[in-house]
Fold each of these.
Amino acid sequence: MVSTDRSKLVAVASLVPAVLLGLLLFWQWRSTACTFVEAAPGLRLCHQHLLGYQPETALIRVQSREGVWPWRRAVDHWVLVDAGVRDSLLFGSHASSLLKAVRHALRPARPGEAPGQLDLILLTHAHAIGALPKLLQAYPDAKVAAHAEELPFLVGHPPQPLVDNKTQVLLSARAMIAAGLFPIAEQQQGVPAERAVALHGEGGDLADAAKAAGAAAKRALRWLPRGVLSGTLLAGDAVAPTKGWLGWGDGLTVSPYASTTPAALQAAAKALIMQEGRSWSWLLPLHGGNFSRLRAQELVGSWPDEVPPVVDAPQAAADAGAGGPPPHAQERAASHDTAAAGLGLSPGNGGGGGGSFSLDTDGGGGGARGPDL
């Protein structure tokens, strides 16, 4: 009798981890649901969850007048910012849920009206590409815009990794492989070159970037005015919301990539957010949150204004022992490498600004300008 009771207890105890794992996976599958909610005029946000990671996707409306006078009418065009996480058997159908949410958001508001048009998928950096294959198939006329240094991965011509304090691209390569977009072995996928738009320069307004990119980009983005309604500063991975016990907090933080120091990222992010003369109302990090301009400036006010120097300790000690200059003389500029080399922050040249692109509201073509990525 005692042996039977013990076997029952052992059986029940062995079931507990399986039940907990099942509940966790069920919660994860439920958390992939995505619904775009209006956060500001012309700005809709969708949040998903991936075991504590909260990727955020945005839809930005760009209205244009189309047709021949007097039959011209306002038509809603849309820019999708980032493409979320791919589907997986373990963690759920993130990409499928995102595609469904985009279709729902662009549906006609009234019977007889035309649906909204998705004209551009803007990738802030190489990690947020999970639903890109599904989106490209569902919206064959949509273009894909990315920074010129990220674009080779998307079209299937990845460059060789750079070393010696240059931008490291291995992390981006792994992201592409994980998303099924890296053409290795028998896998020959990628963004068609004719649908890819390379963004060059130091940042700024997306329309200005399109003009600088040449005729192809002008045609692809010809409908973009000098500003859009939402006035959103696309931060990518430049900053991220702080994480508390009950989810995302109300603060901002940075996550260094490669050899970039936190202080370097903070200085560059502060220069980006505090810059005067740029018309934006909302700061949109990839990892969640939608911060007003005033709140964002309050949060980064205590961050350093300049990138502190970094001391090469081994070399400094060797020189000091050999009668060389003191250690402080061996200080060098902090490394500004970043594996997220897209439109996300890249604090180059002393952290003078971010590499983010902004979609502004004013007619001056403003937008945060940063270093040449």
Note: The mean pLDDT is 64.
Amino acid sequence: MRKRTFALTSAVALLLGSTINAVPANATDNKFWACVWESCTGSSTSGTITWLNRTATLSGTVFKDEGVDYSVTAIFDAFAGTTKVDTQTRTSRGTDPTMSIGFTIGDPDLVGGIDRIRVQICENDLTPPFCGVQQNFWR
């Protein structure tokens, strides 16, 4: 009886787990982040990379210090090996310190797809802008 109950419980848990997370079977997730300052105080970007077959979907936020009058730009570069395939930028200009982002990056026609995303964030109050260290995230 215990074996049957365990088997039934396991089957239900497996079924629920597979239906609740309705993402493509080949999709995997990574967290991403980048900061202007080494201490990660001030401007930053963070979120989730969902790796798809040939592209990736990013969702998250761009954050800038509240009350500053300059814009902040997050730069996202997609690579296949050492070849840059695509670039997306998101700039926060308004008075709201947190801006939501969500987009797809990469080339859906590229055989093999992308395998790395480089993330960097820059404060645009200086010329040239002051940028944090580039962060790389691999499939």
Note: The chain has one domain: 24-138.
Amino acid sequence: MLAVLYVLLLSSLQSLASSSSSSSSPTYASRLSSLPSSSIYDVLKTHGLPMGLLPKGVKEFRFLESGQFEVHLNQACNAKFENELHYDQNISGMISYGQIGALSGISAQDLFLWFPVREIHVDVPSSGIIYFDVGVVSKQFSLSLFETPPDCMAVSSDNLKELVSEMVSEIKSEVLEDWIDQ
């Protein structure tokens, strides 16, 4: 009799465990396996965003059902579009359909200044326009610029010194040209 109760209890526990693991709180692995493929680029496509928002060289990523994501690159890098984008080694934010909010780890260069990109969104996909919100301004770009993940030039301290030096030289020459024109 005790053996029968033991078997019934054991089978009840097994069925309870299997039903609770497939209920409302799926594991990270099952959340990823429900995606067409387990790449961050597929996550972007599934959410109506172009794959080229993130560069090549993603080492690992984490995407939660809530939309929260983290991307880890091998190293910080810069990519050139119409403007230059800087990607930190770690990027995070919240993905929902057509937008990435609470973004950190991406900066955009405009007029020799770097601005942190806080949000990226596509209002109407058929418009072919994507917007980058840098706080005070929202910059628009052609969606076609972001069709494929860009190559990204690694940014080391030597590269950074070179970039700053180049930017200072450009600013000096523009100031000098303006002064001569007056």
Note: The radius of gyration is 24 Å.
Amino acid sequence: MATAYFAAYHNSNNKFKESADYRNKFLKQQPDNATGYFQIGMIQEKLAMNDEALVSHNKIIKLNPDVGDAYIVKARFYEAAGKFNSAIKEYEKYISVFPDNMFVLIYLGKCYYKTQIIQKQKRFF
């Protein structure tokens, strides 16, 4: 557990590279720890390692499909990259489990608007 502690310590001091190193050591010790992958994914995001962060979030979903935040993070990455159809798929997966999140519905509506999916965007605007 010392590795998890040191990872959190370095993360709180904005030493993301060091934090990622400790988090990776932790994941070698506990490879089925979805929380560890979520934390490493957030660190990777801060380090602008978007492809690696997407891999981490895919692992989270594989380990625990009910972790809704992983779908949102993936969708936001896709949206920022202009991959709106991919973002829509992730938002729709999230909405199928958590249908009442107003912010995600707004994000989804914006993606429908960007892709000109008229029938679906009418639901949001």
Note: The chain has a mean pLDDT of 82.
